[in-house]
Amino acid sequence: MSQIMEMLIRRGFLWQSFEIYGGMAGFIDYGPLGNGLRRKVEDLWRKYFVINERSVEIDSPTVGIEDVFIASGHAEGFTDVAIECSECGRVFRADHYVKEKLNLEVDPTIEAVKSVVNEFDLRCECGGKFKEPEHINLMFETKIGPGKGKKGYLRPETAQGIFIAFKRLSDYFRHKLPFGVAQIGRAYRNEISPRQGVIRLREFNQAELEFFCHPGEKKHPDFYKYADDTVTLVDKFDKEHRISLKEAVEKGIIAHELLAYFIGKTRRFLLEAGIDEKRLRFRQHKDDERAHYAVDCWDAEVELSYGWIEIVGIADRTDYDLSRHSKYSREDLSVFVPFDEPVKIKRRKVIPNISKLGPVFRNKARRIAEELEKLENADGDVLVVIDGEEITVPAEFYEVREVEEEIHGEKVTPHVIEPSFGLDRITYAILEHCYDTDYVDGEERKVLRLKRWLAPVQVAVLPLLSRENFVKEAEKIADVLKENGVFTEVDTTGSIGRRYRRYDEIGTPFCVTVDHQTFEDGTVTIRDRDSTAQVRVEKSRIVSVLKELLATEKDLKEFGEVFKN
C-alpha cells in the first residue's frame, strides 16, 4: 500500500489537499493523471448505466434545503456514534476505534459503545478517559442567503435530487415505467475520523442510478444478457456461492431478477474498468445491517491492501424515498399505470353535497369537495387540509354511496432499485489491482497494467536524443496523434531507458521512439508497456496502428506480424 501511494503522489495521480497548510484528513486533490483516469471511469459508467439503459442523466445542486433532509431521514438518522477524549479532545468514530484497538465488532449504538468502553476500560491513545458517547450528524451544515438565512446541508448523496425532481422526470418519460435517472457528482460526509486515504473521504465522487419500477414487476427485459454470468456471492449467513445469476434468483439468494440484473451489469462494468475478478465479490447485507425499508441489498466488494472494501451498493429501496417526500411535500409522486383491459369494480364513494358546502364554506367549497371525493369511505366529521389549514366537514355535507366504476388503471408509487458507485474507491481499486512489478534486463520495474483505453496518457513520443531535429520530429508525430484524439505526451528528459520506466509506471500502453532510422526510412518504433516488445512502423501508419491497438488488447508481437505482411 505504501509503495502504491508513494507512486500515486509522486507521479501526479493524487495528493493531500491543502498540503502547504498542513493538510486536512478526508480531502484529496486529483492530479493530472488521476483526474484523467477518473473521468474515463465516469464515461464507462455512463456507457453501462445511461447510454445502454432506459435512463437519463441530470445534475442537481450540491446544497439542499433542510426540508429535503428532514423528509429523507438524514437530518435525524444520518449519524455515527463518536467518543471524545476528556484529556486531548480528540474525537474518534466509536465502532472503528473499538475494532482497531480491541479487534471487536460493536453495534454503532450509544449503549453498546458505552458498555464496551466501560468493560475494557478503553482509553484514548494519549491515555485519557473518554467522555460519554454521543451521536454526531455526518452532514455539513450551512446557511443559504444573507443574515440568518435558511438552514441547509451539503448533500450526503446524489440521490435526493433525483427523488425531488421525480414529477418532472416522470413527465419526461411519459409516465411509462420502468425508467432510470442517473447523476454523477460530489457528495459530502463530515466523517468523524477519516482514515485509509481515499477509502474514507469527507468530499467524494458518486455515480448513482435510481431505477424506478412497478412494485409488482421487478424484472428487466435484458436480464438474459447477464443470467448465465457466474459471480461470487457471500450471502447474509456468510456462506459463499460461486453461482450463475439466474440460479441465484431461482434459489432465492438474490431477492428478484432486477437486482440480479444490476449485479450482473455492475460486475461487467468493474471488470471492463480493470478490477481483478479474483478479488471481487458481492456481499449481501445481513438482516440487522440492511436498512429497514430495503427488500435486499448487495455490496460489490474488492480486496485491497486495506482488506475487503465496499465500492458499490445495490439496493431495492422500495417506495421509501418517494413516499417520504410525498408525505412531507404533500405532492403526489405516484404514476398512473394503465391496465391492458378496463376492469369494472364496485366501491363505496364519498359524494359531496355542493349545494350545502357552497353557502357555508364559500370560496373553499370546491377545494373541500375535491378532497372529499378522494376518500373511499367516511363516517361522521371529516378533517381535510386546504393550503395548510385544517377544516372539519360534518357528515351532513356529504353522503357515501356504493358505485360501479370502470377502472382503466391504477396509481402506484414506484419502487426504486439503486446501484450507487463510489468513484474514488473504484479508481483507487483499479490502480491497486493494476499495480505490478517485474524484472526487465535484470532490474526491477514498477508497472501499471491499466486497460489501454483507460490510461490517462495513452502514448508517449520519445526522441532518442534531445537534439533539435529529434525533438521537432517527435512533436510533429505527437501533434498528429492529438489531432486524432489520442492523449499524447512528448518527453525529452533523461535516458531512453529511464523514460520507458517512467511511462511504464504511470500505465502508458505505448511509447513511440524517434531514432536515427526515422530520418533514413521514415519509420519509428512502437514499444509495448506490458511485454516491452517493439515493432517498427511507417510514420504514415502510426495513427491507424495506435488507434487500433488502443481499442483492443492485442499482443504487439502478434500485431507486428501483420505489419510485415
What would you note in describing this structure?
- With 565 residues, the protein is α+β, with helices and mostly antiparallel strands.
- It has 3 domains: 3-78 and 138-320 and 417-422, Bira Bifunctional Protein, Domain 2 (BirA Bifunctional Protein, domain 2); 340-410, Signal recognition particle alu RNA binding heterodimer, srp9/1 (2-Layer Sandwich); 443-564, Anticodon-binding domain (Rossmann fold), CATH 3.40.50.800.
- Helices cover 33% and strands 31% of the residues.
- It has 19 helices and 28 strands.
- A 9-stranded mixed β-sheet has the order 3-10-11-21-16-15-14-12-13, sandwiched between helices. It has a 5-stranded mixed β-sheet with strand order 25-24-26-27-28, sandwiched between helices. A 3-stranded antiparallel β-sheet has the order 4-9-8.
- The mean pLDDT is 92.
Question: Topology, please?
Answer:
Elements: H1 2-11, E1 14-16, E2 28-30, H2 32-51, E3 55-57, E4 63-65, H3 66-72, H4 74-77, E5 79-84, E6 91-93, H5 94-102, H6 110-119, E7 134-137, E8 141-144, E9 150-154, H7 159-164, H8 166-172, E10 179-188, E11 203-213, E12 230-234, E13 240-244, H9 245-250, H10 257-273, E14 280-284, E15 297-304, E16 307-316, H11 320-329, E17 335-352, H12 354-361, H13 365-373, E18 382-386, E19 389-393, E20 398-412, E21 415-422, H14 423-434, E22 435-440, E23 443-448, E24 459-463, H15 468-483, E25 488-490, H16 496-505, E26 510-514, H17 516-521, E27 523-528, E28 534-538, H18 542-550, H19 556-564
Parallel strand pairs: 3-10, 12-14, 24-25, 24-26
Antiparallel strand pairs: 1-2, 4-9, 5-6, 5-7, 8-9, 10-11, 11-21, 12-13, 14-15, 15-16, 16-21, 17-20, 18-19, 22-23, 26-27, 27-28
